[in-house]
């Protein structure tokens, strides 16, 4: 699709006005020329008509031949537009145009513009001459010099001759239209020249008048271009308007107002960006404070709980009466509940910080379900509930995080039994095979109190309670579902809930696993020396790197790591997610300054919850020498792909 080049407004105005004036001048000139010439032709025709009548009158009198000859000679010499004047002697009328046809407008236009010559015939009548006594004239210059009169009847009296009116012939005048045109042009040439000069003067004056607003438009366009090419322009240049055109003044005011609004919007945007930066910094600080507070409070609670548990264990060996044993059982129950809740809080905190790892090991899904049924069978029997297992597959050996899978199923089965008063709890297990993996779908179905559909999305929120009376009767349900939801996402699995109030609930967990034959670790990173710098436990990354064949050296002290790097040849240095970006930048600068022969690959694993803040610290880290910044990954396959890409 072709696009036309941009044209400025002044050029369009001048071009359009010039074209309009030229067309108007040409049209007016052409029409005036045609009309004037037709009018001139009409006047010439009237003049010829008068000449014809004069010649006819002269020829009709006795001895008028010499007079007519002199008149014809004079007319032909003085008027070059007259081609010929002839006399035809005849007593028969000539079939020619009538006077009305000659005077018609259409005929005048045709003769004036198209015809080459036009002939006019004027009858010559005399009551003194007969048609047989007149000689025919064939010369185009003059009539015969003698008009003889022969008496037809000598006995005719003078009175009878005078009373008789006889047609003796026709005077034919031929007008040369071409010569008439050229003659008319020569006569009007000066007036045409004056008209053209006047038209040019008018065009120049009009264009000069139009140039006034175009100058203001050009000035306004220059200011607009300056503002467009300078985004950081704080003040508009002076817009000079020489002429006070109302429309241009309005445009100028609107442009200034829009520019001021843009500057105000940019200032608001900068203020908002600064405020957002402050919020980000506060969020980082709050995240750090919250993490430190959680670590501190859980540590203190864990210490106190250990002391309580130790005291209870000492009391178990004492001789107690029944009342004391009941009291001790209540304390044991509360201590166990507090320990379970505290452990769940610690797990949730570690998941949010990206510190929980996935440990893969072999297991048998049938055996796992059997162990869970054996564990919960006494509790279900106490409530007169049926604990049923429905297995839709044969025995397999799979690989996964057994501890976390058991925790998920334990929580779901425990909640199902707690909230079911009559009926049954069903554990449904099904395996689906794919090309490179296998999908294990487990359904925990109960006939309990159910959950209102409006609360299905909220039950995975920590400490959410649908009904305070029921949840207080059944302890330990405030954070369990939230923890297993996070664990399920960590394993790359999914959980779905379908429930109806008063009928029951169905929890469906679908997790991808792998065959044992496909989980043999390959030495993809064999021969690679990696230093992993961290503060907390090594975690999933170190375990996965070792499984892939890499030689991994864990370091917790910066100076110790620097000494090790100087002594050993290290391919890659990784910084764990709990290390602050400022510390990573400082260590990276030191490493780059001490490198001499080879360059190590520096990688910083930041926590997933800091994904939105990566732009804040990534630029500084890369400036310090860090090659890649990436969120912590829990999938060995993804980790392998990333390392292959970076090491390439």
* Total DSSP E strands: 15
Structural class: alpha/beta
| Strand-residue proportion | 15-25%
Roughly what percent helix?
40-55%
What general outline do the C-alpha atoms trace?
Answer: elongated
CA radius of gyration is 59 Å
Unreliable stretches: 1-6, 130-163, 468-472, 517-521
Mean pLDDT: 76
Number of helices: 17
How many angstroms does the end-to-end distance come to?
45 Å
**Major sheet summary line:** 7 strands, mixed
Question: Can you put this structure into words, describing what you see?
Answer:
There is one protein chain. With 648 residues, the chain is an alpha/beta fold. The N terminus is likely disordered. Strand 9 and strand 10 form a beta hairpin. The radius of gyration is 59 Å and the shape is elongated. Strands 4, 5, 6, 7, 8, 9 and 10 form a 7-stranded mixed sheet that branches. A 5-stranded parallel sheet has the order 12-11-13-14-15, with helices on both faces. It has a 3-stranded antiparallel sheet with strand order 1-3-2.
